Amino acid sequence: METSSPRYWIGVVSKSHVARGVAGGFAQLCHGKAAPLKRMRQGDWLIYYSPKTDLTNGEPLQAFTAIGNVKDDSVYEYQMSESFIPFRRDIHYYTCTEAPIHSLLHKLNFTKDNRNWGYRFRTGHFEIDQADFAVIAEAMGVKEYVESGFCAPE
Predict the structure, then answer these.
(1) pTM higher than 0.85 for the full model?
(2) pLDDT averaged over the chain?
(3) Within a 10 A sphere around the Cβ of 126, how many other Cβ atoms?
(4) Which of 16, 105, 146, 152 has the fewest Cβ atoms within 10 Å of its own Cβ atom?
(5) What are the angstrom distances between the C-alpha of 118 and each of 37, 121, 122, 132?
(6) Is 98 helix (H, G, I), strand (E, B) or coil?
(7) Of 91, 79, 85, 83, which is closest to residue 25 (Cα–Cα)?
(8) How far apart are CA 80 and CA 77, in angstroms?
């Protein structure tokens, strides 16, 4: 059994793709690449940030749109079409509300006093500290579950 503390991650995905992942109970990052998923471990947390409502024709959104806990250590391939077989991993998602980033910019360590705060999101997946995770989770309406250590999956 893993005894290390959980790590906290941001995944950058359009809101429409986040909705598919939440409905299916999986995470898929960086256009289906395995590497970002393999960085995460069972018990880690993932928060999705959606810059747009849809990848191709979406409206600007700039909000945190889903939050979940990494279910196990399995990263697997999933055939979506003849030519697209992305990697996924299973996530327990929690009921939450969308949290626009602009009201949080001054509170987050990774964006505070940073005029170019959006640059970090270009990587598609990055780690944040526990304090930033708590700020975002509270804004999404899940603070009491996270702090208590009890998060019942949907």
Answers:
(1) yes
(2) 91
(3) 16
(4) 152
(5) 22, 6, 7, 15
(6) coil
(7) 91
(8) 9
